[in-house]
Design brief:
alpha+beta; binds alpha-D-galactopyranose; Beta-galactosidase, Chain A, domain 5; ten-stranded antiparallel sheet
Length: 682
């Protein structure tokens, strides 16, 4: 519900339409010692209207003028029932602002600023404000690091909360996303608003509780000084802000984001099971080993074989070769055909790792074009993983990369690219001016161009694991490599955080070897498999080292995943709050609430002798369900002296009992997953 009085519109109420909206009911009084006119939290909040929080537009002309615009509405257009376009201008500052609001499963806010004057205008920020109701007192943002991405951080919505990302990519350490909600909101209770910025570069998220009691959140691109300078007639489009609403807690808001993503993802539906060679062989590419690995992969049911880093140029380790995108003669003397053909002959698709945005100083590309890097002349560049970032803001760089990858895609039957981005951008300039904005747009353009030329191609977004997970990249890729961490215990929490924002079919989840490479911990195969089961399943383990029993177990996990895949990759994800900090509960329910898979996960030892019941959610309270415990993965290590009765007899339980009282799990060892399959028993 939007209100405006000739200026920038304001969000009056977010959520399903009210039967009737009477603005008089909430019109603000004027308090003593304040301005004479109430100050709105407009969609683009204006200092010029008395707003004392962060203004939505920050910028100026080179002489300092036009720094505080005030816009007047010139037109409202309704191109379709779900879209409204507000055209505004400020004739003094000579700026035009266009705000487009579109509603599907979420609200999408698009803002564009145009310079209608005759001198340049430098944009520092264009940040739509999403007004939050005053009863919205809790905030959740995300933190993390490499191998521990997507960690929710909860705080109270007081004062100013600021999250800023200057890594030049979406980052492991924070996310362009936030949830805010009523006091103590949980997975299934409370009113919750979620906001995400569809952007893969630098960003600022601000949540402000203003002195007048208003609350709002802003999600915007973080621009460096001078990064965007609009010539007369030019415009700057802010990344889209997506807003979800739920009156059924956090899971409801996640479901709205998932529904939106599913509507806009380049590919939909169940995803093929992957084998990725990275942790299996690292840089040790040998045709015979990889062919044998492919044989075993096909045997256990893998559907896509992805050859990771090490196949090109002088890339024998991570010190050299990035940028030289031709097949290495040294390791692949007959090209990639022997492995591609072998993989294809086994009925699998072939995928290939690339890191297009990067160059090693030790590469032919760098020796030929040192000027193509995103660096600042006069300074020694800061290296990351011995590599530099190429400037994809330059058309000649994009053309070179398009040429290289287009040739590969034409030569070989490559169904899938794992598109990696393994370092932060530091002091990245184009012709002396900050260049991250242009680089990110260049990445988008290159991906779009490759996809247009190869419509069947699928792409995975990776940045040392989950460093580039956002709705901007997800609009043009099919999968996100969630984390380099394949340790299932870590993964339970990483994936839980991921699921708050993105649907499970894009969540890359691999069964790794017994001893996790990134943590050194050992975990049972059952636990590893039951953890990866819920995402876009893959195997990242040298199965040639696995014995016959282990291969059988992997095959069983893949079989189970394939059987449940329509549900897992199309259903509604439900996370359930559980009283025991040593346990979590999550599941997926199909659209008709007649089929569901839930997991009770015992992460560590509980403080109590008996585990607390696992309550489910998203079921139909009036229906009755049969409950089967799935033993296929051998993932539940039972430890008690007697099981709960329901496990030893066939029971049918009502949806409301399952949701309100739950099911009593047996006593379990830590690192156990109990899988429940529920079916309508009508
Ligand atoms: C990154 C990725 C890994 C792997 C390596 C290859 O670290 O996250 O999965 O592809 O690069 O160098």
């Amino acid at each position: 519900m939007l209100v405006h009085d000739g200026g920038v519109p304001e969000i009056g109420s977010l959520g399903p339409a009210l039967h009737e909206y009477e603005p008089a009911a909430v019109s603000p009084p004027v308090a003593n010692a304040t301005l004479d006119t109430p100050v709105p939290v407009a969609l683009v909040a204006e200092e010029a209207s008395g707003f004392t929080g962060r203004p939505g537009v920050a910028g100026a002309r080179l002489d300092g003028s036009a720094w505080s615009p005030r816009f007047g509405l010139t037109a409202v257009e309704r191109p379709d029932a779900a879209t409204a376009v507000f055209r505004l201008d400020d004739r003094v500052a000579e700026l035009e602002l266009t705000l487009t609001l579109h509603v599907d499963d979420v609200l999408r806010v698009t803002a564009e600023l145009r310079n209608t004057g005759s001198s340049p205008y430098v944009v520092h920020r264009l940040a739509p404000s999403i007004a939050m109701p005053t009863h919205c007192t809790d905030v959740m943002t995300f933190g993390g690091r490499w191998c521990r991405e997507f960690q929710p951080r909860r705080t109270s919505f007081e004062g100013s909360i600021l999250v800023e990302n200057r890594t030049g990519r979406t980052s492991h350490a924070q996310l362009p996303a936030l949830f805010a909600g009523s006091s103590g909101f949980s997975e299934r209770s409370g009113e919750v608003w979620g906001a995400q910025l569809a952007w893969s570069g630098n960003y600022t998220i601000a949540a402000e509780h203003l002195p007048d009691g208003h609350r709002h959140v802003q999600l915007a691109e973080l621009l460096a000084p001078g990064e965007v300078e609009l010539a007369p007639g030019d415009s700057y489009a802010a990344p889209d802000v997506l807003v979800a609403w739920s009156d059924r807690g956090l899971s409801g808001a996640s479901q709205a984001f998932h529904a939106h993503a599913r509507r806009h993802l380049p590919s939909s539906g169940p995803r093929p099971v992957i084998l990725n060679t990275w942790e299996a062989v690292y840089f040790d590419h040998r045709l015979d080993t990889l062919q044998q690995l492919a044989d075993v992969a096909a045997d256990v049911g893998v559907e896509r074989f992805v050859l990771d880093d090490g196949w090109f140029g002088g890339r024998r380790d991570d010190t050299a070769g990035l940028g030289d995108w031709w097949v290495s003669d040294a390791v692949w003397p007959s090209g990639l055909a022997p492995i591609v053909d072998h993989v294809r002959s086994l009925g699998m698709e072939f995928g290939l790792w690339v890191e297009p945005e990067m160059v090693n100083p030790d590469s032919d590309l760098y020796r030929a074009h040192p000027e193509w890097t995103l660096t600042t002349t006069g300074y020694e560049p800061v290296l990351g993983r011995q590599q530099l970032v190429l400037d994809l803001g330059r058309p000649e760089v994009r053309d070179f990369l398009f040429g290289a990858f287009d040739a590969l895609l034409r030569e070989y039957e490559i169904a899938y690219l794992k598109w990696d981005m393994n370092r932060d951008i530091v002091q990245g300039s184009r012709h002396g001016r900050a260049g991250t904005h242009g680089h990110v747009l260049g990445v988008y353009e290159l991906i779009d161009r490759l996809r247009a030329a190869h419509p069947q191609l699928e792409i995975e977004s990776c940045a040392s694991g989950g460093g580039r997970a956002d709705l901007g990249i997800l609009g043009r890729t099919d999968r996100i490599w969630t984390s380099d961490c394949n340790d299932a215990l870590e993964r339970q929490l990483i994936q839980r955080g991921f699921s708050m924002l993105f649907p499970p079919e894009v969540m890359g989840a691999h069964i790794g070897p017994e001893r996790a490479h990134t943590t050194g911990r050992r975990q049972d195969l059952g636990f590893r498999a039951a953890t990866a089961l819920f995402g876009h399943l893959g195997v990242e383990w040298n199965l040639l080292d696995a014995d016959a029993d282990q291969r059988k177990q992997v095959a069983a996990a893949i079989d189970l995943h394939k059987r449940l895949r329509p549900l897992l990759h199309g259903g509604r994800v439900v996370r359930v709050s559980h009283p025991d900090p040593a346990a979590i509960v999550h599941g997926v329910v199909d659209d008709t609430a007649s089929h569901a898979l839930f997991a009770y996960v015992q992460l560590g030892p509980s403080a109590a002798t008996l585990p607390a019941p696992a309550r489910f959610d998203g079921l139909d309270p009036a229906r009755r369900y049969s409950v089967a415990v799935l033993g296929d993965l051998d993932s539940a290590k039972e430890f008690g002296r007697r099981r709960p009765q329901w496990m030893s007899e066939e029971v049918v339980i009502s949806g409301d009992q399952l949701m309100r009282r739950g099911l009593q799990p047996p006593v379990l060892h830590p690192e156990s997953v109990l899988l429940f399959e529920l079916r309508d028993a009508a």
